[in-house]
Amino acid sequence: MAFLEVNYYSRVLGMNRVMNVLLPEESDHNPNWTNDSLKDLPVLYLLHGMSGNHFDWQRKSDIERLLRQTKLAVIMPAADLAWYTNTDYGMNYFDAISQELPRKVASLFPQISTKRKKHFVAGMSMGGYGAFKLAFSSSYFSYAASLSGTLISSLNYPGFLDMEKQAYWKGIFGDLDKFSGSKNDIFELAKRQSNTGIELPKLYAWVGQQDFFYGANEKAIPRLRKMGYDVSYETNPGDHEWYYWSKYIENILQWLPINYQAEKRLS
């Protein structure tokens, strides 16, 4: 598995950006992997959380080790603190990640599939919100997964706005009283998508029972199922921390429609 740090220019944001990439390659560990067999690869966009960056999954989880036997490319973009959103201060992070980035990936890595059925997205916390948002409002992703995701329908969720100053939240979402029903409300986006008649993305969510977003997830899942979404939902004892996200990312890999091969104990 090759690891690449890719610096590229984003026309949407008007600045240089960076993404980390895990890319299946020919190696002694996988003698049957050849250039001919490493084509039309499925891809997982793996999103970081608040205060994180494109290195989080690489440094804090076992994602590279878990995928050593599996033909799956992983794209880990940087979204800063922008909540995968076209911010009110004029920086269109959502467009950059939901539209421009897949085109950039297709240009730089032609061995990665461009088919929706092979495009997946997942994330933790803020990235869980981002994963569902991308799946509900773009045509690129057929599967979306959230770990401890911020699956809230109102910014008045207890303690949420206390995480940062109000000026920050206004810069991200604009008028905070108009969040519900807006382009940033994932339930509004899910409802709009469900009314289009297109094939809906399959969803997965996990949250720990001691996580402060546990209540939000408990309410979100039945709501999404009522709209017609196929949601696989798990909850176990656990908190809002990397120990659990590193553990349950493997559940996501097992859930995805890929030939996931659990790591063999190689020397």
Percent strand equals 15-25%
* Tally of contiguous helical segments: 8
Low-confidence stretches: none
CATH architecture: 3-Layer(aba) Sandwich
> Topology as H/E string?
EEEHHEHEHEHHEHEH
Strand order of the largest sheet: 1-2-4-3-5-6-7-8
Count of distinct structural domains: 1
Look at the helices and sheets and give the structural class. Answer: alpha/beta
Radius of gyration: 18 Å
Beta-strand segment tally: 8
- Our measurement of the CA-to-CA distance between the termini, rounded to an integer number of angstroms, reads 16 Å
What helical percentage do the residues reach?
Answer: 25-40%
As for the CATH topology, it is Rossmann fold
Mean pLDDT: 95
Largest sheet: 8 strands, mixed
CATH superfamily: Alpha/Beta hydrolase fold, catalytic domain
Shape: globular
Protein name: Esterase
Organism: Oenococcus oeni AWRIB429
GO molecular function, one term: acyltransferase activity, transferring groups other than amino-acyl groups
Pfam families: Esterase
Question: Can you walk me through this structure?
Answer:
The chain has 267 residues and is α/β, with parallel strands linked by helices. The chain contains 8 helices and 8 strands; from the N terminus they run βββααβαβαβααβαβα. The chain has helices at 56-60, 63-66, 93-108, 126-137, 166-173, 186-194, 214-226, 242-255; strands at residues 2-10, 15-23, 43-47, 73-77, 119-124, 143-147, 202-208, 231-236. An 8-stranded mixed β-sheet has the order 1-2-4-3-5-6-7-8, sandwiched between helices. Strand 1 (2-10) and strand 2 form a beta hairpin. The radius of gyration is 18 Å and the shape is globular. This is Esterase. GO terms for molecular function: acyltransferase activity, transferring groups other than amino-acyl groups. It comes from Oenococcus oeni AWRIB429.
